[in-house]
Amino acid sequence: MRIVIIGAGFAGMYAALSAARLRDIRGASSEELEIALVSPEPTLVVRPRLYEPNPETLTAPLLDVLESIDVVYVQGSVETIDTDSRTMQIATGNGSRKSLAYDRLVVATGSRLFRPNVPGLAEHAFSVDSLDDAVALDKHLHRLAGRPPANGRNTVVVAGGGFTGIEAATEMPARLREILGNDAKTRVIIVDRNSAIAPDMGAGPRPVIEDALRKLGVETHLGVSVAALDESGVTLSSGEHIETETVIWAAGMRAAPLTSQIPAERDNFGRLLVDRDLRVPGAQGVFATGDAARAACDEDGNYALMSCQHATRMGAFAGNNAAAELLGVPARPYHQKAYVTCLDLGEAGALFTRGWERKIEMVGDVAKKTKHEINTVWIYPPKAERAAALASADPERVTDL
Prior knowledge:
The longest helix has 20 residues, at 308-327. This protein folds into two domains: 2-112 and 253-336, FAD/NAD(P)-binding domain (3-Layer(bba) Sandwich); 115-249, FAD/NAD(P)-binding domain (3-Layer(bba) Sandwich), CATH 3.50.50.60. Helix 1 (10-25) packs parallel to helix 7. It contains nine helices and 25 strands. It is α/β, with parallel strands linked by helices and 401 residues long.
């Protein structure tokens, strides 16, 4: 029997750990139940940190962890999935292709930045969506130091006033000073079509965010969107033109395209609709997790967000339940009632809230210490020591805040 997990992000990593944990508990061998993880590289990209400087350092190796728990790593990218024959075609790193069969499949392919058909977007915008994107942005920022301080060199426009946009924008003043010098007059602008900043955070935390933006000198242009980009800057839907050499696109996410190959229902974000055990109804033997799945967190109408916090726990439940079906034990229904947010606000500190109602628990330097611990400790893979790695993947305890 074989479980195949597609994706080495937070959901895929914890799906592998959790499936191996249940296999170990049930006393099955890796020959009786093979667990394979497919991804282009055996590396976890610490995606929540890609707004920070030096993004090339924000990865964590997974091969030793996978080997310690007897999970087979398959290098390559899945190109096609046939759910009828339960096989997939994988493009390997050396240019060849191979077929891999599965008894249970866990789709943990994550999400991608939504890039609409805005003129000039593909040619002139940067992002912090992937490691390559973040490295390209970082190199571009450093190249600015060699350019004349004119034509918007010192201006950065961030398109999107949600979580990612705010973290990228509030980090930017310090990054620009480091590169251009403390005396450089810089300008950072958030553009968002909504009438208020951080629309998903709600009215309670918003004054904290607005105060932080004022302290940092970050401007907001609300109720407008980016209509076009060119070499001179951006043109807004209002007709205003802002001269800039740096535009960071942070306006929305969609599930990775591979999910479209699963014959099942999807939501407006491309996520596969799943049941409480994270199975994909109508696709026999298929589970979906993380940003690839639309899953109910509780009985109160709350659904998992496209976030590391939800992906980690969802991955643990999906891996456990895929293994449970093959090992003949009951599945564990996914649930995640505890929900917190910790928003980095650059040199203005951070904001920590709890619950779907976003009750503020910490602000400023205290919240910043928690954010630092989350970013540098909590979200990293466990050590490559078998007992500890398996213990870290108990579905009921993962991200239990």
